[in-house]
Amino acid sequence: MVIDFSSMYENTRDMEHFLEEMFRASPFAARRLPYPQVNIFENADSYVVDVNIPGVDPNEVELVLTARNLVIKGERKSPEGRYYRQERTAGHFQRVLTLNVPVERDKVTARSENGILRIQLPKAEAAKPRKIAITG
C-alpha cells in the first residue's frame, strides 16, 4: 500500500505562496508611512527632531508647539506636467508629535539645511537629570 502525501504538501505550498503575496511590499506601501519621516533623539541639553522635507520650502512649513504636542504642517508641491511615474509623495502633510516631557518653550529653535528641518527643544530644568548628594 502506497500513501500519497503530495497533496498535503501542495496545500502548504499554496498557503505559503498566498502569504508571500499578501505581505509583499506593494507600490502603495510607502504611502502608508507617516510623512514626513522624523528622527527624534536627545542630547544633554535638548530633544532634537529632524524632519525629512527635501523639496519643501522651509518658509512654508508651519510649526506649532502646544502644551503637549509639536505640530508640523506643510505642503510638498509637484511641478506641473504629465507624469509617467510619481513615487515622491506630494500634497499637504501634518505630523503631530506628542511631547511627554517639559521643554523650555521660549528657547525652541528650528533650522533647515539640505532638506532636513532640525527642531531643538531645550529640556526644562525639571526634565534634566539631577545629582543628589548623600549625607551621612
Which features does this protein show?
1 helix; single chain; 32% strand; three-stranded antiparallel beta sheet; alpha+beta; four-stranded antiparallel beta sheet; 136 residues
Describe the model.
This protein is of the alpha+beta class. The protein is built from 1 helix and 7 strands; from the N terminus they run H-E-E-E-E-E-E-E. Strands 1-2-7-6 form a 4-stranded antiparallel sheet, with no helix packed on it. A 3-stranded antiparallel sheet has the order 3-4-5, with no helix packed on it. The protein is flat.
What is the secondary structure topology, with strand pairs?
Layout: H1 6-23, E1 38-42, E2 46-52, E3 62-65, E4 69-76, E5 91-98, E6 109-113, E7 116-122
Antiparallel strand pairs: 1-2, 2-7, 3-4, 4-5, 6-7
Query: What structural category do the secondary elements indicate?
Result: alpha+beta
How does the major sheet shape up? Answer: 4 strands, antiparallel
Topology as a string of helices (H) and strands (E): HEEEEEEE
Radius of gyration: 25 Å
β content, as a range? 25-35%
Instruction: Give me the number of helical elements.
Output: 1
**Shape designation:** flat
Q: What is the end-to-end distance?
A: 87 Å
Uncertain segments: none
Mean pLDDT: 83
- The percent range for helix content is 10-25%
Tell me how many strands there are. 7
Question: What spatial order of strands do you see in the largest sheet?
Answer: 1-2-7-6
What would a concise description of this structure say?
With 136 residues, the chain is α+β, with helices and mostly antiparallel strands.
